[in-house]
Amino acid sequence: MIKSKTQTFNDGILNIYSVGNIAQAGNKPKEGLTLKLGNLHYEERTVGMGRFWTAKQAKVKIDRLLRVPRFQNVSSQDIAIPNDGRQYEIKQVQYPPDVYPPAMDLSLERVEADYDIARIP
Q1: What are 49-59's pLDDT values in tens digits?
Q2: What is the DSSP letter of 96?
Q3: What is the CA 28 to chain-centroid distance, rounded?
Q4: Is 14 in contact with 108 (CB distance < 8 Å)?
Q5: Farthest-apart Cα atoms in the chain, separation
Q6: CB 70 within 8 A of CB 16
Q7: pTM (2 decimals)?
Q8: How many CA atoms lie within 13 A of 78 on its CB side?
Q9: Which of 2, 41, 84, 114 could be 9's S-S partner, Cβ–Cβ 3.0 to 4.6 Å?
Q10: Partners of 98 in the beta sheet?
Q11: pLDDT score at 3
């Protein structure tokens, strides 16, 4: 039996947002961010050469790789904001085997223009 590698998630805290219309009812639609998952602890990972060059071939620049606890509703349509306060598009979600607790790796690319974040009334 393969022993699971224990994850620490002690490098920072991450929020994940969905992109959608954040305009008030009756106003012109405005694309922005709505909180999907908050206060996820993460572990910073190294963007390896294989991942880097594979992304380059797909004309994607992977700026960061973060490992977070596993959730099923995170997708490549979402935006992540880690400790640095910058917005990153989630380009890929991977579920590594043999890790405990169950985790997912998020490949992130910095967005060119930041979205507005919806205010919760």
Answers
A1: 776 677 677 77
A2: -
A3: 28
A4: no
A5: 59
A6: no
A7: 0.87
A8: 21
A9: 41
A10: none
A11: 62
